[in-house]
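Troubleshooting log. The previous structure file for this entry was overwritten by mistake, so regenerating from the original sequence record. Sequence copied from the archived sheet and checked twice against the printout by T.R.
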Amino acid sequence: MTISSVFYSATQGAAMEYEMHFKATRGDDIQYEREHLATRGVEYYQQHVYYLARKWIPKSKIKVRFEREEPTAEIEETIGIEARRMEYVGSQWKAQALPSRVIGYVKRRRRLKTRR
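Regenerated output below.
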């Protein structure tokens, strides 16, 4: 799955694009897996772009695209993410690779701290 969006950065004085490619190895129901991966990916994308560029991107401006999938017998509980940042300078895009990450397929719940 690919998630991306383009916006203007006043601090950089240029158009910016952040693009993330998500890979997950999952099983049976491809439609369910697409919906879950899109939900998880968009949340992560919004938070990560805000952390890097201090720009909150509304969900309506985020593009989510899928490539052809194949069902597999293996099931992994992780999602691999490869990201890149692109800046429009002059009449060309300049790309910069960002560190790749691995996140859990299911978002962890926070535990409440108990006082003793």
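The chain is about 20% helix and 40% strand. Archived copy saved in two places this time.
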